[in-house]
Amino acid sequence: MQGNKNVLRKSAWKWGAGVLATALMLTGCGGGSDNEAAAPVSLEGRYELDPETPAWQSDKKAESTTLTWYVNADWWNTDFGKDLVTKKIKEDLNIDIKFITGDDTKLNTFFAGGDMPDLITVFDSNSAVAQKAATWALPLNDLAEQYDPYFNKVAAADTLNWFQLKDGKTYGYPNYSNTQADYDSGEIPAKTAFVIRKDVYEALGSPEIGTPEQFVQVMGEIKQQFPDLIPFGFNSIGEGTGSLGDTLQDFLGVPLQTEDGQFYDRNLDEDYLTWIKTLNEAYRAGDLSDDSFADDGTAFEEKVKVGKYAAMLLDGTPQQSGNLQIFMTANPDKAYMAIDGPQSTKGNEPTLNQSGITGWMATYVTKKAQDPAKAIQIYTYLLSEEGQMLMNYGIEGETYEKTADGKIELLPEIKKLQKDDADRYKKDYRMGEFMFFGHDKHKALSDDAFPESVKQMQEWGEGKLVPHFLLENINPDQGTAEARALTAINTKWNTTLVSMIRAKDDATFDAVLNEYRSFLEQNRWADIVKIRSEKMAANKEKLGLE
């Protein structure tokens, strides 16, 4: 998926939502007068409902509508109306959007104080915020019926069904919600890759790095021949485990479930732990930098821009495409390229993940929305072909043209700017960044959908994607004892993983791992596994997998 920042921030927000859950249950998510919906707006003099015509095309409201939109991410670009994409949205919908950003603490203040924005975007549809949306948000089904029935033509039925709450209504709609059909189409690009600088790879004789022994040897050779480089890098650890967690597990093809269809603890998979011990061996040899465990997303990105890492296990290649392009433009003969990298010691094929049916950013219209008609028009507009084309490619004739074979091609000057000045490209055009309700399938319409820096990486990933649908939204419900235990376990696993990789010897490695196993037993792990298995079964039923 395309975005403005490191995809690992997504994991951080998902982790943080669990911490917030209890507070939310004690404040605005609990109901009460403050959560009563604002009175419906009148459409008299504005437009007549027409299921065959998007409401935004018919709306005659003269004055511009200002909407406040909170995005639960402090890195989100709050500009609106300055770049080509949002300027066009502002013009077509006759709206102005005031974006507010923050973290979970800021989000909680809305529910505690009752001063709600018009729209809210969160990053975890399994959080207390999302699961209690009926207490603070308006159903999209009702908004479509009241204000814009054309919404039902552009929204994916499978996605709406997946997001239904217990009352049978859908409140949030995500971006990058991929169904099985989307995966089967082959149009979804891989977002993970093991990459290495071309000059390093060639200098070492194009080595294989598939086995633990090969990996350790190559890292040592890099350190010897390229002493100014960090041999191996990975996405920032932050609140989660970076690309050394489930991303590495996917590269190794660690099973998604047990043979009898129950939840499988991938963190304790023998194949995966073999590779963690391999990373520990490389660390003890001085081939992994201590800084890599402390660097935040910004520090990691700065090192990518200057090619500081010889090799990386990279999650979120589209999110890093600008940084990779900056290095590629300055150093065309040293650009990062994808190779097979670490492979299963048991012969498993990679099972790389992409966005699932849950997607990423889920957006809601709050009960305090001053003009819910305009709010649902935003959904319809951005979900439509017109909106998708705008967000991805801009405006026909100004930024792109259609070729004789129906492909989308960026104009030469736009393509040059994307390649040579990624920062200005983002600032002036914002194509591929402003992606509320965006979808991967529209990327397949053009060879210019992604910068040159990641195209080879995506080609390498062809045929390696496997949906992880059955593992989506399977955690214990927020507020339960199991959910609290899982929060503690996730925190413990994060420190355990880092401690294993940085262990001074095998005995310390084993001791840290055994301590984690004991921690699981002491923190309701068996109950969590049972809940996850039950939710996996429900997912299979919902998806028709059994």
TrEMBL record:
UniProt signal peptide: none
Cited InterPro entries: Bact_solute-bd_prot1
PROSITE patterns named in the record: PROKAR_LIPOPROTEIN
Gene3D superfamilies given in the database record: Periplasmic binding protein-like II
Domain of life (superkingdom): Bacteria
Transmembrane spans: none
Protein name per its UniProtKB record: ABC transporter substrate-binding protein
